[in-house]
Amino acid sequence: MPLFDRLYNFAHWLTQDREEAEDLVQETYAKALKGFRSFQPGTNFRAWIYQILRNTFLTSRTGLKSSSSVSLDEESTLQNLPVTNATPEAILLQRSDQQLVQEALGKLAVPYREVLLLCEFEEMSYQEISATLAVPIGTVMSRLSRARRALRDTVQELQKH
Fold first, then answer.
1. How far apart are CA 47 and CA 49, in angstroms?
2. Sign of the C-alpha dihedral, residues 70, 125, 103, 1?
3. Average of per-residue pLDDT values in the chain
4. Handedness of CA 119, 58, 34, 140 (dihedral sign)
5. Is the pLDDT assigned to residue 143 strictly greater than 90?
6. C-alpha torsion 18→21→22→27, nearest 10
């Protein structure tokens, strides 16, 4: 199955539930096979199948429930993190930082989470993201900027607790 692992990872980040992610990927492949005649040879297959996954997610109960908006009015400054070496303490800090970022990513609104995941984790170009999400490239760039800012703010908020 082409792109299975990558689709599953994206679905898991969107749903934040292993079983829902598996169902979402399965439904995505079923829809892709059923509607393969709509795929135009010579176009971007990866963007096409990611768009099917995204649309399937958004029409699910989880996607609609998660589409709440996030206020991005406040600007905050990025705190300097201490430089660490590969000591056991540093490894523990790195792991806790990863968990913190994962938790913060899970709190982002879906439009911001998906653009950030497609850019940073799936390494899609702005053009591929634009095709996947069916939005202009300018929208991709502004959502990405807002998503990064919201992620940073959320991480800082979680660090306070």
1. 6
2. positive
3. 78
4. negative
5. yes
6. 160
Backbone angles phi, psi at 111, to 5 degrees: -60, -35
Q: What angle do CA 85, 91, 95 make, to 5 degrees?
A: 135
Neighbours of 73 (CB within 10 A): 4
In 40-147, beta strands by DSSP E = none
Tell me the mean pLDDT in the region 139-160. 90
The conformation of residue 36, written as its DSSP 8-state character, comes to G
Residue 94: the pLDDT is 58
Cα–Cα distance, 68 to 3 (Å, whole number):
29
Nearest to 112 by CA among 66, 61, 157: 66
pLDDT tens, position by position, 9-52: 888 888 888 999 999 999 999 998 888 888 778 888 888 888 89
Q: At what angle do helices 137-160 and 88-107 cross, to 10 degrees?
A: 120
Please report, for the chain, how many H helices and E strands are present, in that order.
8, 0
